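A quick aside before the break. I want you to see a complete sequence-to-structure record at least once, exactly as it would be stored in a machine-readable document. Don't worry about memorizing anything.
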Amino acid sequence: MTGPRLFANIKARVELARALMAFRAGNWGEVVVCCERALAFNPRCFKAWVLKSGGHGGLGRYDLALDALEKALAIKPKDGDAWFKKGACLYFLKKVAGTEAAYNRALELSPKHWNAWHNKGSLMLELKRWEEAAHCYGTALRIRPASLNDIIGKGQALYELKRYPESLECCEAILRQNPRDAVALKNKGECLRHIGRN
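That is the input. The structure line, written in tokens, reads:
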């Protein structure tokens, strides 16, 4: 790579570095502007499209974030994290079927993607697909065993499935991390009440 193309790639990298600093500072508008400049130099810069989607997402412009992710995925269609981010955008756009499909694709490509397992679990919980929610949260917990939100989600799904002893285990795991958690204490009492009936 020589001459103008090399110069364009260097300029794109400089703008990408600025975009990353703006992203870390939560300056979403600046992220978008820097990424647009980077993409003017190199329209096939995958990282710039992904960062641009993050800037738009930070501004609540999920339709534009989704558009940027589509462009990123046209460059790298097998990037599991980009598929996860696409699922998150679709979720905010209230496109449930697309959300689930994107999370499934993310997990197909990156089976240990904790965020994708967690978010899919949350989606399954919303859809009242308890068995799938318990499975997703359980898988997320194998990746990050101390994730409080995953323990809570799994416990809720198990409770809905009337698997009270397993739900009780989740309540106790929450209480080991936070002994004064009022919701976990209440849920523990409910589980014990149901177990006493069996």
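Two observations worth writing down. Residues 164 and 195 are 6 Å apart (CA to CA). The two ends are 73 Å apart (CA to CA). We'll return to this after the break.
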